[in-house]
Specification:
The protein is α/β, with parallel strands linked by helices. The chain has 2 domains: 3-77, Arc Repressor Mutant, subunit A; 84-197, Rossmann fold. The chain has helices at 8-26, 34-41, 45-53, 67-78, 93-100, 137-143, 155-168, 194-202, and strands spanning 31-32, 59-60, 64-66, 84-89, 109-116, 125-126, 129-133, 148-151, 172-175, 188-191. A 7-stranded mixed beta sheet has the order 6-7-5-4-8-9-10. Strands 1-3-2 form a 3-stranded antiparallel beta sheet. The longest helix has 19 residues, at 8-26. 23% of the residues are buried. The model has no long low-confidence stretch (mean pLDDT 94).
Length: 206
């Protein structure tokens, strides 16, 4: 089956599988099964097998999956066997934390440029990089061939900044601003709203 035709909800589960397989590999494991993945992740084994079937045959009946091979195949499918340069827009409290976060690089992402519009922040050093003026965004994005951006900015500025990113050639945006942004159909957006996630969970609390 053409992996480009896999449903987005399936693609969204692949990083979860990849994370579990990475942990298993670090534990020294060599073989796993859809049943074991099911128990670890709370996703049915039938669903896991169906998800993998969109991209090929990775296991053998009765012997399961070779962890290192399946992990590497998922990295290839997700295109994270390489390092993606990332632009971070916004150097407030959240932006500062994201710029210093060490968990991106092992997953295939490196923040190579940080931008802000506050003159007091421009020129500051963070994780070996200088905070740049947002006026330089288009030039730097094109110069460094950046395709991925993170927005950690107030909702009032989100659409304007998203427009700048798209015009500069950004094709994927991780949006921490608590607002929906409008982008062309060929640009992918993932919204991260911790408050909305908390509200989702409190529905179930007694």
């Amino acid at each position: 089956m053409d992996s480009n035709q896999a449903p987005d909800i399936v693609v969204g589960r692949l990083p979860i599988y990849l994370r579990a397989l990475t942990f298993m590999g670090e534990e020294g494991r060599e073989i796993t099964s859809s049943q074991e993945l099911s128990e670890r992740l709370g996703i049915s084994s039938a669903q896991i097998r169906k998800d993998f079937s969109h991209f090929g045959e990775f296991g053998k009946q009765g012997t399961g999956y070779e962890i290192a091979y399946l992990r590497d195949q998922l990295k290839r499918i997700l295109q994270v066997e390489r390092m993606w340069p990332v632009a971070l827009v916004g150097y407030g409290d959240l932006g500062h934390a994201l710029a210093n976060y060490g968990g991106f690089a092992p997953k295939g992402f490196e923040i190579v440029a940080v931008f802000d519009n506050d003159p007091a922040k421009i020129g500051q050093q963070v994780a070996g990089k200088e905070v740049l003026s947002i006026a330089e965004l288009a030039t730097i994005v094109r110069q460094k061939k950046i395709k991925v951006a993170i927005m950690a900015i107030p909702s009032s500025a989100a659409q304007q900044v998203a427009n700048m990113l798209v015009d500069s050639g950004i094709q994927a945006i991780l949006n921490y601003a608590p607002i929906n942004i409008s982008v062309p159909h060929n640009v992918r957006v993932q919204d991260i709203d911790p408050a909305a996630r908390l509200q989702h969970m409190t529905f179930y609390l007694k």
